[in-house]
Every structure is written in C-alpha cells, then in structure tokens.
Write a structure and sequence with these properties.
By secondary structure, the chain is mainly α. The chain contains 14 helices and four strands. It folds into two domains: 21-210 and 372-386, Cytochrome c-like domain (Cytochrome Bc1 Complex, Chain D, domain 2), CATH 1.10.760.10; 216-356, Orthogonal Bundle (Cytochrome Bc1 Complex, Chain D, domain 2), CATH 1.10.760.10. The protein has helices at residues 6-9, 73-84, 96-99, 146-155, 164-172, 175-184, 194-205, 214-219, 228-237, 244-247, 275-279, 311-319, 345-356, 381-384, and strands spanning 32-34, 40-42, 258-260, 287-289. The protein is globular and about 65 Å long. The model is unreliable at 1-14 and 380-400 (pLDDT under 50). Bound molecules: heme C (2 copies). Residues 242-244, 246-248, 259, 261, 263, 288, 290-291, 293, 296, 299, 302-304, 311, 314-315, 318, 335, 337-338, 351 line the site of one heme C.
Length: 400
Amino acid sequence: MAIVAAGAVGPRAIAAVEPDGFTLSPRCPPSFELTPRGTCELRDRYQLYDSLQGRGMGGTRTALPPHRNGFTPRQIDLGRYLFFDPVLSGDGTLSCASCHRLDKGLADGRPRSVGVGGKDAGRAAPTLWNVAFLSRLTWDARANSLEAQAEGPLFSPVEMANDPARLRRTLNDNATYRRLFAEAFPDRRGAIELDLAYAALAAFQSTLVSFNSRYDRYAHGHTAALTGREIEGLNVFRSFVARCSECHMPPLFTTGQVAVIGAPEPPGRPFDAGAQVTFGAPKLRGGFKVPTLRNIARTAPYMHSGAFATLRETVEFYNEGRGNAVPPGEALYLHWHIGSPELTGYEVDRIVDFLQALTDETFLPRVPARVPSGLPPVDNPRRTARGPSMQPDDNRGIVR
Ligand code: HEC
Ligand code: HEC
C-alpha cells in the first residue's frame, strides 16, 4: 500500500478554505499528469507497448485501449463528492458508494444489489475499477458512456429512485453545490444542469484505475512478482485448452464484448435474457458483457446473478462443460470459446491462485469527511476503517 500516499506527499496544494469548508482539489490524482489544457491524463507503463488488439490472446505486453479522459482536477473532485453523497437518491439513504463500496472492491458483496427501501435491484453490482476503458457499460451492455450510465441507478425505482426534476432542484437548492459546480465548470454559469453532474461522476470514475497488481509487475518484467503456482495458473488461463484470456484479455482482463456463456441463475430466480433485450438479438439471449477480472478476489459473489460464492466455484463452472447450467428448454448460442476443457483439480486451483495476483487497490479514492448535503457519506470510514486509504480527508484541496 506504500504508493497510496503518492498524492499527499508533495507540498500540499493550498487552496483558500471557503466558509462552508469545501474546496475542490486543483491537482490531478496520482498517476495522472496535468496537461497544458488543464486536464488530467493517465500515465501508465502499458503505454510503452504496442496494441495486439485483434491478434490473438493478448500477451503480457499488450497496450491498453484508449482511456476516457479530458477532465479537470476540479471536475474529478466534484465527482467524488457526488459519488459519496446520499442526497443523490430519492430518500437520501443511498450514495453510489453504497453499492460500489471501497471495502468490497467497488462492488457490494451481495449476490444482487439492494436499492432504496430494500428493493432487489435484480443484478450484482459490478466493480468500477478501470470502467473508463469500457465503451459499453452494465452487464447487458445497455449504456454507451459513463454519463449515460449514471442515469440508470439515479432514476431506477429499484436503485436510487430519484427523478430528474427532484435531483436538479436538490442540487440547485444547495449553496455549496452551486459554488462547486461553478468552479468545476466555469464555462457553464447559471443553474446546475444534470449533464454536469453526470460529467463530474464520469470524471471521478475515470480515476479508478488499477494497474499495479503483482500480475502487472510480472508483465513489466519482474518475474519474481508471481509465485511459481501463480505462473502455472497464468499459463493455464492463457492456454488454448482453458481459453480464459480470449475473453478476459490482458491487460484489462476483458475484451469489453458481450458473450453468451450460460452461467446460471441462483435457484428460484427466473432466466435473465441479458443482452438479447439490449440489442433485440435472439443470438445474444443470455449474453452478458465480459467482466474485468481486476480485483476479482475482492468482489465475491460472482457473475451477473451472484450465483457463485467463491472463485473456485466460478472456475469449476467453466470446467463442468459447455452448457452445463443452461436451463431445460433454453437453446442458447454459446460462445465458441466456451468448451469442455477438462482441467485437472490441480489446474483449477492454479487458476484461482493466479486470480489472486490481480488485486491492486493502490488508488482507492478517499472518502470525503463530509459531503455538501451534510448527510453521512454512506461508506463512512469510521464504520469500515481498513487502512490508510480509508481515512477521511480534511476537505482541503487534496483528492487522495
Ligand atoms: C442500489 C445499488 C447501486 C447504486 C446505488 C449504484 N449502483 Fe452502479 N451498479 C449497480 C448494479 C446492480 C449495476 C449493474 C446493472 C446492470 O447491469 O443491469 C451497476 C452498474 C454500474 C456501472 C457499470 C459498470 C460496468 O462495468 O458495466 C457503473 C459505471 C456504475 N454502476 C456507476 C454508478 C454510479 C456513478 C452510481 C451513482 C450515481 C451508482 N452506480 C449507483 C448497483 C448500484
Ligand atoms: C466466451 C468468453 C469467456 C470465456 C472464454 C471465459 N469467460 Fe469468464 N466470463 C465471461 C462472461 C460473459 C462473464 C459474465 C457472465 C455472467 O455474469 O453471466 C464471465 C464471468 C467470469 C467471472 C466472474 C466475474 C465477476 O465479476 O463476477 C470469472 C471469475 C471468470 N469469468 C473467470 C473465467 C475463467 C477462469 C475462464 C477460463 C476458464 C473464463 N472466465 C473464460 C466470458 C468468458
């Protein structure tokens, strides 16, 4: 966790403290560089490599796809306040961080999320690590940008249950938010419009990057970063027998595409048609966006339905053979990389070992000590304290 403090070791960016105590950081988060245009751009070591997109399995030296950037430090920091502020939900009880929790790998640890008033949100909350590299969002790929995605949870009756008019009024009635939006979007004076809130949330989420796992160190040439067993697991993962990396392609560990793999619903749950609904395509019945495996050891239970409690069970599912969990009467077009690999128990265990090496929460954001609504930020660090990155900040110009 040593690099956690990277943003806080240099000279503190001193900003005048406003009467209400809220100031937006003028600095980019760690591993981002301020461009002459005043925006933050990600710097990572994968920029040294060529892209192998479309050329097989994605070796360890494969470039990343384009990262969604172009946001200023103040837009990012405003997004952080919004992300942790329960005032965004209809009844003031849920923030984005209630379901994308800092202590649960930016997922929520539940098989299916729970919305306002205890409503069943229907699917598991995916992690938000590295979301800024995805061009399709949600399990069924129905959102094309982070901005468009934000409207989903905000206005869904089974998630945050707000409505646009009420959210707009709430933000505009709050003098702190009026000042912070004006600072973050100096070209847009006047009432706060919701597109700015979506942009700020996108800005914040674009900083949730995870590329400092032991796997990454191995990929950059530090062969001792992985144990012998993990290297064996990586080799099975990339093999033409297991084929995991055809879909969970390094370095993102997803191609970002939709695939039909036939994962089950938990007992008693109806079949979920997934991407068939999004695209109106019968061939995509039961298809879901390939999830990243970054920080996968932190985000149990697994799959869109939370059907599997452990990584061992999840890998076993692939090993039990093509179509093993497809309900009777469903004829799914299973992806051609879903086979019957017949891995030994030893090989399954090594894949599970390897998946542990994808953990890196170095740039976990800081929970604001207070948010402009005055409501308690839901992931209150005093409830979930776990390490230095979980400490509240002092709201004085330091992002993390
Ligand atoms: C009630 C729990 C809940 C809350 C609150 C919530 N989310 Fe989510 N989030 C989910 C679930 C469940 C999904 C998956 C939805 C689906 O696929 O149908 C999701 C999906 C996402 C995704 C897509 C990730 C991917 O890999 O495709 C993003 C981005 C996201 N949420 C951001 C947010 C933001 C920003 C907020 C606050 C405005 C928020 N969420 C609030 C539960 C929640
Ligand atoms: C054809 C593409 C494809 C292949 C090959 C593939 N997966 Fe997946 N994987 C997916 C999809 C799609 C999902 C989500 C399915 C769902 O939620 O119903 C998934 C989900 C997962 C999850 C759960 C992720 C989460 O956040 O819940 C794990 C772990 C996983 N796969 C590991 C593997 C391993 C290990 C292999 C090789 C044995 C493998 N996958 C092969 C497409 C693939």
